[in-house]
Design a protein that fits this description.
Length: about 290
């Protein structure tokens, strides 16, 4: 069964296979943020040194991540500790799971949300395949308000291993993208609303204007549904000048009935937009990031 992050329910044990860093951070931050909204204790086992990108993505999403860290609602375990898990025997893992769930629920949270990056289990340091650990975790969840997401980097696992791991999970998270080349990821969040994450350079800059033009064309054909084409740039960390100019040029081509709205523009990109005449382009509007 395929579910989006928002569709994952309490008690689900899901997996996701990731092909790019931007996809990884999008999924990880989305899973954690959903736990904040549900007042769940979140345990993040970082096996790929992704803590800093995760926290950055949460901040880009306008989430008070420092507040959640200070209250303990979000607990992040570094790779040095996460990788020790794969040296445990199965009974030791079962006992740790029981203790961790019990302690988290005793703190008064509505549930426990766990996600891990088990790259350290690839070489089986205890001679136990990850599939066996996963079964132990699944059994330990039963009867408790626990939600689990297993994150698998495609490059860490063989095709046969990934097939086995995916078959063990009844739920796989769907993470569709309009475009993802490992450097730039573009997703659609709603009709006429896209999000651009990562970096834009000469190799992929043509996509910016193409996607904006396509969204405008769709809006014009659906007369009266919207007068805005929204592009979220909270996670756009680099764009060359030629790309930034394309945002202005695209807005200048809009009819008076519609406008291009850019959300969460990073200061470095906003400065270039200002120099390119964004402030004098009637059909271009810059807005702050939307609070979650």
């Amino acid at each position: 069964m395929s579910k989006t992050l928002h569709e994952i329910a309490l008690g689900d044990h899901a997996c996701v296979v990731m092909d790019s860093d931007e996809q990884h951070w999008e999924i990880a931050a989305g899973f954690v943020a959903e736990g904040f909204r549900r007042h769940e204790k979140i345990l993040y086992y970082d096996g790929a040194r992704s803590t800093e990108p995760l926290l950055r993505r949460l901040r880009e999403d306008n989430i008070d991540v420092d507040g959640y860290l200070s209250t303990g609602q979000l607990a992040v375990f570094p790779p040095e500790l996460t990788n020790q898990l794969w040296k445990l025997s199965l009974p030791e893992m079962a006992e740790l799971v029981s203790q961790t769930i019990g302690k988290s629920l005793s703190e008064g949270y509505a549930g426990v949300r766990v996600t891990d990056e088990p790259g350290g289990a690839v070489h089986r340091p205890a001679g136990v395949p990850l599939a066996e650990y996963d079964r132990t975790l699944h059994e330990g969840m039963q009867g408790h308000p626990v939600t689990m997401l297993c994150q698998y980097e495609r490059t860490d696992w063989s095709t046969s291993e990934l097939t086995e791991l995916r078959e063990m999970h009844s739920i796989e998270v769907a993470t569709p993208a309009i475009y993802d080349d490992g450097l730039l990821r573009i997703t659609r969040h709603a009709p006429y609303t896209t999000r651009v994450s990562g970096e834009i350079d000469f190799s992929n800059r043509h996509l910016v204007r193409t996607i904006i033009d396509k969204e405008l064309d769709r809006a014009l054909r659906a007369a009266g549904q919207t007068d805005e084409i929204q592009v979220h740039l909270e996670s756009l960390r680099f764009a060359d000048v030629t790309t930034i100019i394309q945002f202005v040029q695209a807005a200048e081509s809009f009819p008076q009935s519609h406008r291009l709205v850019l959300y969460g523009v990073q200061p470095c990109i906003r400065r270039v937009l200002d120099r390119c005449g964004a402030g004098f382009t009637a059909q271009l509007t810059l807005r702050e990031a939307i609070a979650p």
